[in-house]
Amino acid sequence: MVAQIEGERGIAPVASTGDIQVDGIQVNTTGKTAEEARRNGWREATRLAWAKAGGPQLADGQLEGLVSSVVIEREQIGPRRYIATLGVIFDRTRSGQFVAGASAVGTRSQPLLMLPLLYSGGVAQIYEVRTPWQAAWARFHAGASAIDYVRPTGGGGDSLLLTAGQVSRRSRTWWRNILDQFGASDVIVPVARIERQWPGGPVQGTFTARYGPDNRPLSSFTLTAKGPDQVPAMLDEAVRRMDRIYTDALLAGTLRVNPTLNSERLTLDPAVAALLAAANRVTAAQEQAIVADAVPGAAAPTIVAAPSVDAPAAFTVQFASPDVRAVDAALAAVRGITGVKSAATTSLAMGGTSVMRVSYSGGLDDLAAALRARGYTVTLGNGALSIRR
Fold first, then answer.
1. In angstroms, rounded to a whole number, what is the distance separating the alpha carbons of residues 183 and 127?
2. How far apart are CA 46 and CA 40, in angstroms?
3. Rounded distance, CA 282 to CA 286, Å?
4. Residue 264 lies in a domain
């Protein structure tokens, strides 16, 4: 078990924001110097990306003010020539007035746990090892998507809990336990099947978008890379197409949370609840009458109502996350506290401060005391805690 969770495992997803990102822009420019050729290439990429995003025609100077960053996917720099494939990210605050609907959808899904399943060389893998399919999803800029992806890092205990065998399980109780740990409502499984024609030759990928605990398919497509060096680009394109499939399914009403995953949260119809309460009162009165008849002069027994159980409250906990092990340790410590129903990261910042959402049957002061008992220094805020060793 130790060998199964140690080693180089897990890929932290890139930071997700609501900015507008346009990838796959190819440029081929020249200049008097290499620097001028590169500058011309970036300027042309900005114009092409803006047009692809559906923005109106603007001057180059105004466009440069809307750019948040440029992502270099591939580049070749010569003395007077620049050939590259770039991605351009436009700041939504400044550019949203021009392309309000270019990369955004009015609605947004509930949190969906994403399990990237890869078949390669006859082996099915999710987080057992680092895979190129997992890396492609980690690179995906999900902030502007209509799908609220819950992307585990795959490190630590994730490689034991989220395996390829989990996809074929149908137990709602098992799925509910997993979804609660990651703060998700349902699961989606993007499947990639990679087939290499011969060493160094073309690589064919068959991709299927699946969802739900019953692993139902939504759609499938096939892409081909001319060689192994083009596989990452093929997988990035597959991720973008997968996101469009899930978004279309959400808008069509197909991608709905499976009601059987929340069966324990169903409430009775008010009329039925009233009938059951009346029946319970009649039963209690009959029992009291039987006791009084059996023992003359005996006082009727006192019916003591069962203590009510308070609904769990949700709190925000900030914690330092220098590496993946620190994240796993903090989650394990919080989940081990009596009364904690679930704990899952909502913001992951490797090397900085991450945030988790904790569902706890108790007050904030009680949670703080329990964390202090586990050796943490706790700072209380308004509905939130900050912990550190």
1. 18
2. 10
3. 6
4. no
Domain assignment of residue 279, yes or no: no
Q: What is the pLDDT of residue 69?
A: 82
Distance CA 129, CA 123 (A): 11
Nearest C-alpha neighbor of 50 from the set 14, 106, 91:
91
Residue 220 belongs to a domain: yes
Coil vs helix vs strand at 153:
coil
Distance (Å, whole) CA 371 – CA 380: 12
What are the tokens at 202?
Answer: 């073309």
| 195, β-bridge pairs | 204
Q: Give the tens place of pLDDT for each residue, 317-334.
A: 988 888 777 888 888 889
Residue 11 falls inside a structural domain: no
Question: Domain range spanning residue 382?
Answer: 313-388
Q: Residues 126, 207: one domain? A: yes
Closest CA to 109 of 247, 210, 240, 217: 247
Q: Which two tokens mark 78? A: 């010569």
Q: How far is CA 376 from the centre of its chain?
A: 27
Please indicate, yes or no, whether residues 88 and 111 belong to a single structural domain of this protein.
no
Q: Which residues are CB-contacts of 177 (< 8 A; sequence separation ≥ 6)? A: none
Average pLDDT value for the chain:
79
Q: Kindly state whether residues 60 and 149 are assigned to the same domain.
A: no
| Dihedral pair phi/psi, residue 277, rounded to 5° | -65, -40
Query: Bridge partners of 313?
Result: 360
Count of residues in the chain: 389
**370 within 8 A of 384, measured Cβ to Cβ:** no
Query: What does the pLDDT read at residue 265?
Result: 44
Q: Which of 126, 91, 151 is closest to 348 using CA atoms? A: 151
pLDDT bin (cut points 50, 70, 90) of residue 189 is very high
Handedness of CA 70, 226, 14, 219 (dihedral sign): positive
CA distance 131 to 138: 11
